[in-house]
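Sequence design from tokenized structure. All designs in this work follow the same two-part layout: the structure record, then the generated sequence. An example of the structure record is given first.
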């Protein structure tokens, strides 16, 4: 009977050790999930910032274009050579704004891609945590 007690006590110690290890693994998974959630939030914030900058740039480009168009109308009566020079300058500024806008849109696509990747990683981590929880629950239930 004493050997049975020693054996059962040993099994209990082993199970407690296994439980502590699994609890530690679960805590690690939860920390990883929190870290990924934080990274996702940062990427979403960065993406929103880029989107806002893009919208601001487009508005500035539109205002700039309107301003230049009024300027063109004011000087319309001047000689044709002066008018052509002004028109070329306005077109160059508009093209520069379009390039800037296209660059910001490309950055936004990259940020959205990062955001999607992080969302996928978080989903994977959540799935792994859920699987680990189910496994731990099952192990604890069978004990």
């Amino acid at each position: 009977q004493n050997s049975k007690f020693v054996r059962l006590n040993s099994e209990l110690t082993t199970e407690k050790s296994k439980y502590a290890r699994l609890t530690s693994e679960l805590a690690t998974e939860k920390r990883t999930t929190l870290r990924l959630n934080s990274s996702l939030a940062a990427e979403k914030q960065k993406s929103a910032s880029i989107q806002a900058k893009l919208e601001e740039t487009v508005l500035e480009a539109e205002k700039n274009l309107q301003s230049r168009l009024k300027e063109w109308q004011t000087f319309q009566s001047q000689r044709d050579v002066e008018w052509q020079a002004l028109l070329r300058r306005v077109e160059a500024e508009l093209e520069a704004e379009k390039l800037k806008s296209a660059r910001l849109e490309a950055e936004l696509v990259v940020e959205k891609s990062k955001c999607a990747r992080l969302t996928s990683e978080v989903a994977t981590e959540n799935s792994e945590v859920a699987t680990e929880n189910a496994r731990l629950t099952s192990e604890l239930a069978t004990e």
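The mean pLDDT is 91. We note this feature because it recurs in several other targets discussed in the main text.
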